[in-house]
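Record format v2
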Amino acid sequence: MPSNSNSSPSSSSSDNDDRNPNSNPDPSPNPKPNVKPVSIDQSLDAIENQLASISMSSRSPTATVDDEEEVGEEEGQPVEQLKITNGSLSEEIGEEGVTDSIEDEHIASSSMAESSGVIKESPPFVWRNNLEAHEVERPLSPSSSGYAGEMGSTSGGDEIIDDDEDGNEIREVGNDGVLGSHEQRISGKRHRDEDDASVSWRKRKKHFFILSHSGKPIYSRYGDEHKLAGFSATLQAIISFVENGRDRVKLVRAGKHQVVFLVKGPIYLVCISCTEEPYESLRGQLELLYGQMILILTKSVNRCFEKNPKFDMTSLLGGTDAVFSSLIHSFSWNPATFLHAYSCLPLAYATRQAAGAILHDIAGSGILFALLMCKHKVISLVGAQKASLHPDDILLLSNFIMSSESFRTSESFSPICLPRFNPMAFLYAYVHYFDMDTYLVLLTTSSDAFYHLKDSRIRIESVLLKSNVLSEVQRSLVDGGMHIEDLPVDPISRAGTVSSHLGQPRAATDFPGRLGDAFVGIGGPAGLWHFIYRSISLDQYVSSEFSSPINSLKQQKRLYRAYQRLYASMHDGNGPHKTQFRRDENYVLLCWVTQDFELYAAFDPLADKALAIKVCNRVCQWVKDVENEIFLLGASPFSW
Amino acid sequence: MASRRRMLLKVIILGDSGVGKTSLMNQYVNRKFSNQYKATIGADFLTKEVQFEDRIFTLQIWDTAGQERFQSLGVAFYRGADCCVLVYDVNVTKSFDNLNNWREEFLIQASPADPENFPFVVLGNKIDVDGGNSRVVSDKKAKAWCSSKGNIPYFETSAKEGFNVEAAFQCIAKNALKHDSEEELYLPDTVDVVGGQQQRSTGCEC
């Protein structure tokens, strides 16, 4: 049943660390944050040497970095081994270095075997999965089996919990990669009983507040706004005090905490976080939070404050806690929140075309935008005339719709504002769910268009049913998109043959037991674990499905944060930056930015640099080969 | 779900340093009193939930510092206040004389929509001191000033003994509420396509 999924045990358990203050005995003995992102565009060797030396002196940045992540997962890092590996690398990265080539599978797999032997202290559950994978698939290397023995003796009670969690997540995440069970955790505000005097409240890793310029609370992620009125007043006092000196406070660092301020006229937004996310990322999240508020109310609220500074906005936002909570949650799993790009549900070209055609058909008649979405992914979208839709608006709109229960139960007609389109005024959104995941949004400027839009929807629905779009959508949800294990060996020769398709080689995908299989294996070639490809001209991105060893939500979140940092460092305003290759104890991260695309890839920490570069080229080629299935082409919302 | 609308009222306490602003607030919120004087730095904030005529609302009490060096906190502090409480010490003439300045200052900084009718409440504190023998500002004098300023409600209090504090804050809440009744409909515009929406996002600015 739909409503029950909200309270599924797995979804709540995955949240444990966040909720339970005791589960996180803050990892104080962490000397100095962090392998600094250091510079980009340097010779890679220089970067690597730096990284190696930094990782010698400081242990495990990420153990403390990650929000809601438990501690003690990493008991010391394979620093020595890393160094050795680094020593043997000497390639230059750079655009000339990145050339197409045919992968040498032999080298790749042997390096993988080596790596699993060397990294003893990596997260136990991951490697255990990994081991099982080996056992099923291929003979174990001696070092790996030695590791297995060690594992058995070292895993303690806590780790067992991890394993449970992990097990649940594998099942849930399987279908949908990025999304998985994340989305199902949406609910109203949690921990409403807390206030700033509660120990648990103080231990939360990431707070978000919205308040008015008179210090009246509007929203708090945790705790009751009214009980937090004093705290809210304090925040206002700080902001105003600085403003009084004709200045602006942007960031305050206090120990492990960053306090980020964003002033939007009479609305103040504050994030207090000890997640060590970059300032730019946190600020971007506040911008989105503000955008979400504008989506619900428009910027006309400012007028209320002009007329009446004591205006209390909370009543206008009644019942929207879940919208903000789910947006804030998406800051830790949805790359769209920092990439400012949207993602499409992978579909056969013809299927997407069919959906696009019918949307296009009805879009003329007083409809400004028509979007067919599956969860947070776009199936197709169409804009009338010159109207354009910003990816952030898509994100905020889909978040609003998916987190408001009432849209699911009946067709709705609701005023909404697209902050990037026109922050001052409302549009009207007709929303209808075709099934649990798939919904149609028709945006119009006319407040009395409900019946017209209802008719349009009926037309669209019948076409979608006739052309099997809805069942294809469900199939895509099960199959997922790009699986790194499927990375073609030689994309060039392949491109010559019949056009490549996603999913096709994955014949096993149709029977229910296959999800287990999907997580067998050790990632893609050359230790490729995951990638995100963002097409700049399309404003879209595609993210590979998660697979081993990025199985658990915890792992995925850590990788997400790593990408987020990588993105921030590539867009730090000192650019343009073209490439970055980083190695730390968790990953090798490779970023490649061109005029056309940005590629973010994560590899095994011991991955060979030259091979990693080659694999990245293959990924880019692969994306090109299947672009008409993973992207919405020709109908770029900006080309109208 | 019953959406019981809760209200939040911002209450600002002003007055010379040492007249007992913090003590009054502490007595009211925590029912505690301390003879030790600790100067407030900048401002203190406390909240209290109050029931009034079967409505529950929250008082957000801004206890400001009386010292002049903190007066630069200015506009921001006063902005959006629902009620302003002026406190003086009945044993110190100067603190009473300054009420006028405090009131003026508040009206300038907060610039409320209707300054004539903005809800103030005046408290004459420390009536317990020396059994009332050291008192220098008479009840009559205070009331006269209050009525000259548009009938500001007046209370004589003792933060130490908790005398009249509850009643004073009840009145503060009541007055603040009275002025908060005008509720407008929230009606933003709708996008006008014919007029040509100029807003065009230019793709990604990253």
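The radius of gyration of chain B is 21 Å.
The beta strands of chain B are 7-15, 43-52, 55-64, 83-89, 120-125, 154-156, 189-190.
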